[in-house]
Amino acid sequence: MEAPHSSPAVDSTGTPVTGTGTPGTGTPGTGTSGTGTAVTVTLTVESPEQMQDLGRRLARVLAPGDLVMLTGELGAGKTTLTRGLGEGLGVRGAVTSPTFVIARVHPSLVQGPALVHVDAYRLGGGLDEMEDLDLDVSLPESVVVVEWGDGKVEELSEDRLRVLIDRATGDTDDERREVTLMGIGPRWAGLRDELA
Fold first, then answer.
1. Residues 61-108: pLDDT tens digits?
2. Euclidean distance between the first and final Cα of the chain, in Å?
């Protein structure tokens, strides 16, 4: 199981990425890292329904070739967010966790990009171990969403959207989540405006 994210966000090189957004308000922030510019937006989500709605909102800004990496503990809401993405993209099939099949392709019903939903939790290695999935072939015409992809799929694209979902840990029924969207690379320079 993944450790809680109590430390500052870092990019794929381990460089801290700072944000100036106001947590809990949905006010976006921006930050920079040692490898270029990253745009950071922090939102508070109060329920699974709001998480799914956030996925629908994100779908409006996604395009073929986009790589979305989801990070968060088990039960944080990664698949719920992806379900909203699928609804927003208008894809075929119920979006469920791909844990046991590793990857699912959901073709578009509205002439848009397909959604490729990957669960890299059981994959120990980096991109080499994922070559059989042909993600590099799927990426140009699809939106590729990878759960547990940190340290495994960054080589697929210099531009990527990293989504960190933090939830209260321990024995709690609290459904509140803090979601940090980190747009890495020029593709995501307008992320704050696109989500407004």
1. 999 999 999 999 988 999 999 999 999 999 999 898 876 677 888 999
2. 33
